Amino acid sequence: HSQWKQTHHFNTLAVIDYMAGRVLWKSEQFGFASIHGVVLLPQVEGLILYGRDARKITWTIAANLRTGELLWRNDSLFGEKGAALIGKNHESDKLLDGHQPPIFDTDSTMILCMDNEAIRRIDVRTGRVIWRTQIRAHDVPALVDGYAPAVLAGDRRTVYYPCDKSLLALKTEDGSYVWKSRPKLPGRVYQIQ
After folding, report:
1. Considering just the CA atoms, what is the radius of gyration of the chain in Å?
2. Are 11 and 36 in contact (CB under 8 A)?
3. 156-172 pLDDT, tens per residue?
4. The pTM of the whole model exceeds 0.85
5. Which of 34, 125, 180, 191 could form a disulfide with 11 if both were Cys (CB 3.0 to 4.6 A apart)?
6. How does DSSP assign 60-104, residue by residue?
7. Which own/partner pairs from 80-89 qualify as long-range (CB within 8 Å, at least 24 positions apart)?
8. Tens of pLDDT, residues 119-169
9. CA 6/CA 3 separation, integer angstroms
10. How far is it, in rounded angstroms, from Cα 84 to Cα 111?
11. Is 10 exposed, middle or buried (CB count within 10 Å of its CB: 0-12, 13-18, 19+)?
């Protein structure tokens, strides 16, 4: 258990030392007007924050959980359109919550699927995109929409993602497709075992 907790409230984020009852740092210090997603990075004792400034320009950062020190910033991690945000209400209420959770395939890398355009593998220490594989899906394969969670094979060499009425198998090393064509299924993939 950690003595640091994150609170995400009305599109801002604060990290609080709950033992001392004091705020350690806030998302506003990075220029965010709203935060739409947070991913814990235990490997580097940090958090990834995805958000927008007042002009609605999006970017992604990683910050040290204890100090709020900027570890890295990536302005184009999710391309020009940005990550697909989930929610039915006002734009400021939409979040990354409900997407595929990140898959930590090594101690220093994770695989992300946060839109319907690509799956990405990034270095969690630097924010550098190691590979980006286009998926060209109609839908974002979000858990909240009934898609199965992605699965990392036991040997950690292949990752499986649901995609529309199909299943994708990608090599974790370089993001290349394992299969020459996607299997056509009668419906959405709800479970992968």
Report:
1. 17
2. yes
3. 999 999 999 999 999 99
4. no
5. 34
6. EEEEETTT--EEEEETTTTTTT-PPPB-SS-GGG-BSTTSPPPB-
7. 81/115, 81/117, 82/58, 82/115, 83/36, 83/37, 83/50, 83/58, 83/114, 83/115, 84/114, 84/115, 84/116, 84/140, 84/142, 85/36, 85/37, 86/140, 86/142, 86/144
8. 999 999 999 999 999 988 888 888 888 889 999 999 999 999 999 999 999
9. 10
10. 16
11. exposed
Contacts (Cβ under 8 Å, ≥6 apart) of 154: none
Q: CB neighbours of 159 closer than 8 A, spacing ≥ 6?
A: 103, 105, 111, 119, 150, 151, 152, 153, 169, 170, 172
The residue type at 108: S
Q: Could you tell me if 115 and 78 are in contact, meaning their C-beta atoms sit under 8 angstroms apart?
A: yes
Distance CA 98, CA 81 (A): 19
Which residues, 6+ apart, have CB-to-CB distance to 146 below 8 Å?
Answer: 188, 190
What would the two tokens of residue 63 be?
A: 């910050």
Give me the numbers of helices (H) and strands (E) for the chain, helices first please. 0, 13
Tell me the β-bridge partners of 8. 13
**In terms of C-beta distances under 8 Å and separation of at least 24 residues, what long-range contacts does 108-112 make, across chains too?**
108/43, 110/39, 111/150, 111/152, 111/159, 111/172
